[in-house]
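Input set for joint prediction.
Command: fold jointly, output tokens.
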Amino acid sequence: MLFLKFDRSNLHNFDWTLLAIVLSICAIGILNIYSAGYSYDALERQSPFYIKQIQWILLGLIAMIITFSIDYRFLAKGAYVIYCIAIALLMLVHIFGYTMHGSQRWLSIGGLAFQPSEVMKLSIILVLARYFEDHKSNQPYKLRELIVPALIIMLPFLLILKQPDLGTALIIVLISASIIFFIGVNWKSFLIASSGTLLSAPIVWHFLKDYQKDRLIIFFNPERDPLGAGYHIIQSMIAVGSGGLWGKGFLNGTQTQLKFLPEQQTDFVFSVFAEEWGFIGGFVLIILFMSLVFWSLKIALHARDLSGTVIALGIVCLFSWQVFINIGMVLGVLPVVGIPLPFLSYGGSAMLSFMAAIGLLMNINAHRFILHR
Amino acid sequence: MENRFTVLNVPETPEFRQKFKIVVTVLLIIFSLLLIRLWYLQIIKVQEMREKSESNAIRYRKIQSLRGVITDRNGDILADNLPSFDVVYMPGIAKNHEQLIQRLQILYNRKNLEIDLSQQFGKTMRPYLPVKLEKNVGMEKVAVVEANSVNLPGLYIDVSPVRLYPKKEMTASLLGYIGEVGKDDLENGESEYSLGDITGKYGVEKVLDPYLRGRSGAELVEVNVHEKQMQNLGRIEAVPGYNTVLTIDTRLQEAAWLGLNGKAGAVVALDPRDGTILAMVSAPSFDPHLFNAGISAGQWKNLLNNPLSPMTNRVVSGQYPPGSTYKLIVAAAALEEGIITPQTKFFCDGTFTMGNRTFRCWKKHGHGQIELHRAIVESCDVYFYNVGKMLGVDKIAKYANLFGLGKETGINFPNEKSGLIPTQQWKLERLKQPWHPGETISLAIGQGYNLLTPLQLANAYASFANGGTVWQPHLIKRVETAEGRIIKKFEPVKTATIPLSKKTFELLRSALWGVVNEQGGTGRAAMVPNADVCGKTGTAQVVGLPQDPKARRLKKISAFHEDHALFVCFAPRDNPEIVIAIVAENAGHGGAVAAPIARKMMEIYFNIQESDIRPQVANTAETGR
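tokens >
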């Protein structure tokens, strides 16, 4: 029960700076989604995504308060349970989930579409934190010791890949790999592991369906699909570039308003922003993301135990990779993978999990001085 | 190197701080990369991107794949492709929509052009997404648009393939039709399709869509203000679909279609040796080419609301009372259950009374003393009333189920209906009423609740003809590439065996032969010299009507209440190769209306010339039920 007790001193340690950064990004997000969804056609104007986004932000804040209030060490203790629930949800998606845009990612809970793969992002961080807390070592980890974490990562990776949701599957692997790198691996093990992964790729390949193979080919070689993804990238780069230094102004982005941009409320939300607010706007936004990431890194550095450090660090990786891959894709330097830009893209499940991540960071921050035991 | 990556267990050790420095460096690099790229696009490339944004001259064009060709078993083409010339409009190019419409009207020499261009523009809000104004236009219009392209900015001719069905209505309900993927299809998770793709909507086109459709390609091009292609930025060729060979024989299909001669109904012919379908005709039908030009809402409504439902394939989706064709099942049940022997006789005086109800034989003055063979040959109802009464409904149902009735045959075709074989329990569950013994009486001659699809009827007789093997009917022979490499072969599937004694088979086979070939048989109109046709006529009452013709006339029966004419047959008697089932709706008696169609088909099948001596029986034979 120790961990469930809400400590009033938490309030004194509440991280207002972090909250301010997050809310600033959210506010930009609402304005931007308003613009992306804006239409000169009255009929199309009846689906106000920005209203829904505000609702998701409010729900997200509740999720944040919950993850802030439950001691993170308690969450780390229950990490395996949370992980199993997340795995079960992913399996349910394959059975009951419904399909949108050709991918089976969603579960319907009381009419709300919900993406279990988003839960898995946080869950994998918690589980790895728990694992390395339990298996502390003074030596770099050897391959043998990394078999269990590898299995823990592979299972959700394959389940999400099968949906298929390449982007989220990739994020899961990137976050986990980053954590393991930080924790320390011996170089020999690393080399063996990576060559093993490369060798097993053809086997996985064999089990994929034709259209899944196509998507992977296009992912690694976008020139093969200059028409689907390539077209989107070109339109996105035109949108961003034509924004110039000052941008075309709010609701004045021609690429956006004439609907040349694909997925402009979700994956390509940054190009909408960059077109209308220019380099100045893009610069401010990237600086805001940098502040978020470095502030989170500071929390990781000062965490009071290893699990706190690993969780905070995992969240740093989560945000950094999502921001880097999303904006990199929109700017045409990375291949097209559908992953959302944190707090900016429209989407409920992602918003909830990002907010929950912020709650966890605040939680770790608040406990940095407290010695319970 | 190793010590840089040692494990942290106590936070804030020097090694720990060292690792954080690495993380900070990596993060700084990542974010700098993004900022540099943003700078490059928005500050250095701004001019170029602005120009592109203003002209937006990059077009995404879909290249439609060629759909696979469908042929019959002899290689006769049933569905092919033709180039279609479409007038396409790009709203973003035309600055003045009204002017464009006026010009087009003058050129077309037509007062009211149906499409409101400005409306199209407002609706899509995608100015560079081409809108197909008119599909499959004639060469004159193509010439007009091409010659005046300078005066018609935003308008151009696009060539795309359309479907050609050489046999038109004759194969329409079999082959189905195609159309653009609907928004609903996409939202239902049809991941393999994208908007504008062509997909099979019904029939063979739908069933085989995954094979037929191929894969559409696309190209990315830079165009000038006249929509002329300037530069190709990338292209994926379309992959044509696979060709399909059906088991259908066009000659039989044609004979069946002509035989129905405009009457509503269904004809199906299949090979009892493996269940391959040789002909599948449903009438009335529709013109499949209507869908090429994009069917108008009015035409579509007409098709759907037509009381004769031309969009339904009656062979698999039409359900009819089997009438006297059902007597084969009842007779088999009675023989197997030992209720009758071939010698059992009943007396038919034209009526049969049970309780206070009187059932009539189709022959007003009765057949007199009659045994099984003649009862089938002359289709005596009173004989079967007696048999039915002794058997009971559930025994009849048991044998009907053995013949594969009451459930789908399993043919790979949309909307197959299962028909209905009633039992006592079924009535209690469905209608919450107990079974009346009187209902069994009419059931014995195929009237009442029981319903069969023509395909089920044909397949039941096929199972009888081949000595008791129930095959799953199929109409696809193989799928192959244009070069003839086989992609998939469809093998016959055996679904059940009917455990009847050899003696029963022999007895009934000879009775069915008698129906067509003996004096007084009801199916003599189907007699083909040397073909040894065996069959059974049937007349299915649509509503309960008085048997007496005078009384019927008084009731003023509308055409929809006339009896359905049924005939089902197989040949040759000893090694049957073909089974034909025919239902002609509201057409009268099976022997008079349906049997001649079967004879035509049999003649074609056995290559018998029209000029051969044909027995003049159709008019004189007693055309019973």
